[in-house]
Design a protein that fits this description.
7 helices, 2 strands, two-stranded antiparallel sheet, mainly alpha
């Protein structure tokens, strides 16, 4: 014999097939863009205050940091290339043996050149914690000479040693 199960008191009634449940409320209230914009406009003082506070904090942090400047440079001398080597260079490829400037000896000779060493001894350097003010290698080596050109040449000779 089958026994009918009756609902317990306080239980929800079974949903009827033609009725759909109401939609869940969204986080924005009504769920439309206009509702969200309306909420932002009602709290415009708070929104603008937060934006100004974050901007002021960012500006304070930016201007309170120590300024650091970094630079780097590189060079690649142009050498004689064949038409195939020139086309390969335009495409970002390098073919072995297309220029004599690829050898380490070339770069060693270039660094020992009078022009490069002259620029190195006359450029002012600042090393934080070691050199408090900009100093050239001529001054750092305490080179003696009658004219600035003679002092520069003497500093270059010291660098060549």
């Amino acid at each position: 014999m089958t026994q009918a199960i009756s609902p317990t008191p306080g239980a929800y009634p079974a949903p009827s097939p033609g009725r759909t449940p109401p939609p869940e409320p969204s986080l924005l209230g009504g769920g439309t863009i206009l509702t969200a914009l309306n909420a932002l406009l009602r709290q415009r003082v708070l929104v603008l205050g937060c934006a100004l506070l974050v901007g002021a904090l960012a500006a304070t942090w930016t201007f309170s940091r120590e300024r650091t400047y970094t630079s780097s440079s590189s060079f690649m001398p142009e050498g004689r290339q064949s038409s195939v080597g020139g086309l390969a260079a335009q495409l970002g490829l390098s073919l072995p043996g297309t220029s004599g400037a690829d050898s380490p000896e070339f770069y060693a000779d270039l660094l020992k050149s009078h022009e490069i060493l002259g620029a190195a001894v006359t450029t002012a350097y600042t090393i934080p914690g070691v050199l408090p003010r900009p100093t050239t290698m001529v001054d750092l080596y305490r080179v003696k000479g009658e004219t600035p050109a003679l002092r520069r040449d003497e500093a270059i000779k010291r660098l060549e040693k």
